[in-house]
Amino acid sequence: MDQVGKIEKLEGNKATVSVKRISACGENCKGCSSACKQPSVIFETDITGDYEVGDYVEITTENEVLLKQIAMLYGIPFIIMLATIGIFQLLLRNNPDKDIISAVASVASLALSFFILKSYDKKEMKKNTLKFTIGRKL
């Protein structure tokens, strides 16, 4: 996946680059206010070539790491929601309102998955698992 980053600092052959995180709304602030509040990802990487602070560069991300994060982003809420529906269906077998109750509980389980994903994201950002490669200067 290709993105655009800005070189913030250069020290020898190391560069500190900031890349704005991509949100689901496609950075359309009129349609979604979260894109404006998305923090930039700042990382250090080896750099070779003639770059200066403030240059915009093409950034390439490893697809396998990105696919893992996408699977977590969509898989965790889906699994938690299905498990919640199954548990409530089993617990409320004889209740005539079991479908409505399990539906409401499954929607509430999405709030739980939000907090799980938020802590997962913080952990992954500390580990710096995203591997960025600097391409050409823009």
| Helix and strand element order | EEEEHHE
Poorly predicted runs are: none
Question: What structural class should be given to the helix and strand makeup?
Answer: alpha+beta
Strand order of the largest sheet: 3-2-1-4-5
* Number of β-strand runs: 5
Radius of gyration: 21 Å
| Mean pLDDT value | 79
- Helical segment count: 2
Q: Shape from CA axes?
A: rod-shaped
Largest sheet: 5 strands, antiparallel
Helix coverage percent: 40-55%
The CA-CA distance between the termini, in Å, is: 16 Å
Question: Strand content of the residues, in percent?
Answer: 25-35%
Description:
With 138 residues, this protein is an alpha+beta fold. The protein has helices at 63-91, 98-127; strands at 2-11, 14-20, 40-46, 56-61, 132-137. The chain has a five-stranded antiparallel sheet with strand order 3-2-1-4-5. The protein starts with a strand and ends with a strand.
Q: What is the fold's blueprint, element by element?
A:
Blueprint: E1 2-11, E2 14-20, E3 40-46, E4 56-61, H1 63-91, H2 98-127, E5 132-137
Helix pairs in contact: 1-2
